[in-house]
């Protein structure tokens, strides 16, 4: 099939899904979860092929680990699918309604988006995850995974499509682009006649590619420089715990902090505590000049920062540190240095908290809490489709509702406009 | 100023606007409304220059009428600005909130989008209209109007910026791209570092241009083929009134109908009534073969339809007519022929109404009502920014709320993630 045909098939499937009951969709999800476990042998064999190819290409251990499925991981994936069954189906809910003066009953009803295109990298669990979330919300999906997981994904999609078929749903409800070649990605990004939304799940380069080439709305997200600003009224002992958590609990993910901004009045007290803790956790500090002077005698490894350091998403055990004069200076830094994901203020001063909440350009703003909470599960959304850092459609963690749109419904008695 | 500088200035202004009270924004709007009337002479003189240039270029009467301002139109524009003052400011409202199990108080608060880019064609009222709606919602705007209204827009923006300045708001809250040349439009479409949303206000070509070149989310809308499907259980006498209204009340706009779908069981009764009424209103009918046979003896002008006719948005006194077997056949026609804006069913059968509501791919679906109601004012939104036919962010008429985003706010007591 070419992309045009895939798009047509997806759109036709989307019409069927939009008309399917929650019961039908849930049944298909349960069949899918069972089929993943029943077909474990074939799936793991395909995964072994991908792993062998990856090893031959000298791919690093971290990447191999992301590629790898084993019985436990597969069981966890199946369990995630069963969890999606238990979530409330947002489709069909009335968002609001009113009776207009002319007697028309006007309402907005939640409907599926239609067809969702997803482009992602190595992790095979994304294939199941996104297919399940799209199916639950009545959306057809067209998936394009990384070539490192080609065999695994082929096998997973086979299982999904069998589950769809045996549940009486069209197999084109979940399609996978198997052909190699960048032209297929570029083609998908321009399939606006059939595809309603593109979700890139990957790094900044993938997002940039989608932004530049797509003629379809793209959900941009998943990166941005994270900051904690420690105000002069913060409880410094407890502040260290929050900073530590936001930096080191899981250093490779997008809701960690990259830069610590310290009110200059408390720098002399805070920085020794920081140096001790960061030394203990193996975090290298990258400091502006006034801060460097206060840190050089401490136990933590430290070097002088360049301006670019404050524009760097470290995704590892490095932390920028800079002194600022007040909350407004902290906000000015955030605005200049691509704060768009998760940022926090630690303070006891109400007006500073409010100022930071209003002024931070971030999808998620915290007062006296770690930035690590920006996550669909932590926020109680039940599922996470993506974390948006754009302002249209959805911002921050996206759950099932963010895979829907709405339509206006006007009902009357042969009403005409004057 | 180059575009980069305009983008920077707009972003800086957006931060100030996001922090401004409703009172401050309303004050600026009232000053703007007064200034439009106080500067009527200069504005109308500039408009006369544009009109003279347009006449020299042999621009048609309809276009000249769209360009033209006079004291009454200017007063109406000022009055629209005062109306925006009376609308509720959506910014700052809490959309929802909860306390998580860990004690974090998590809420979503409505915030401005930031910077909105608007590209439009001839009508100078759009300049004021969109500037006012953006200002009310705390968004900075970068405007690019058609070259036919260059002088008028220059003068209008001067008035706007003076009003901003005298109200203590940054003049860069509303900026206008005065330079001619397509490269400025293309540049604006790629200014994703500073601009959060693009609204094209114009025809299909402008929307296509934006879709293809923008790296910024674009609100696509304002066109689509409009349909009425007359079911076999419809009240035919009253159906004619609704069809007439949907076709002829204002034939040039986007919420009129282009195609009438007639249940084949009632075609013989309905079509003579239709022919008589359409003849009276000067509407030419374009019919499929079975319908043509029933229409040739009637008073209305009629010709045979080609398939392309059912993909044509007439924007004038032409109406496609086609017979269909039932509501599902009507829906199949809608899906094939780009129904995305406003479509209606006329029926007495509840299950057919529900089937049509669920199945129509339209932003607005009507039961026993004219499609002409798809409009921000008719829907009680108070203002209309655009009519979206895409499914992301907003669908159908967009009011002030659709010029906003939200941010997540998490407040706790030095909370860390386990």
How is the topology of this model organized?
Two copies of one chain form a homodimer.
Chain A: H1 3-18, H2 22-38, H3 40-56, H4 61-67, H5 71-86, E1 94-99, E2 105-112, E3 115-120, H6 125-136, E4 140-144, H7 150-166, E5 174-176, H8 182-189, E6 197-201, H9 204-213, E7 227-230, H10 236-248, E8 259-263, H11 267-281, E9 284-287, H12 289-295, E10 302-304, E11 318-324, H13 327-336, E12 342-346, H14 350-359, E13 364-369, E14 386-388, E15 396-398, E16 404-415
Helix pairs in contact in A: 2-5, 2-7, 3-7, 5-6, 10-11
Describe what you observe in this structure.
Two copies of one chain form a homodimer. In chain A, strands 10-9-11-8-7-12-13 form a seven-stranded parallel sheet, sandwiched between helices. The first copy, chain A, is 42% helix and 20% strand. Chain A has 418 residues and is of the alpha/beta class. The relative contact order of chain A is 0.12. In chain A, α14 links the parallel β12 and β13. The first copy, chain A, is built from 14 helices and 16 strands. Chains A and B meet through α1, α10, α14, β13 and β16 of A and α1, α10, α14, β13 and β16 of B.
Compact summary:
Two copies of one chain form a homodimer. With 418 residues, chain A is an alpha/beta fold.
By oligomeric state, this entry counts as homodimer
| Average residue-wise pLDDT of chain A | 95
Low-confidence parts of chain A: none
Radius of gyration over C-alpha positions of chain A, nearest whole angstrom: 24 Å
Gross morphology of chain A is globular
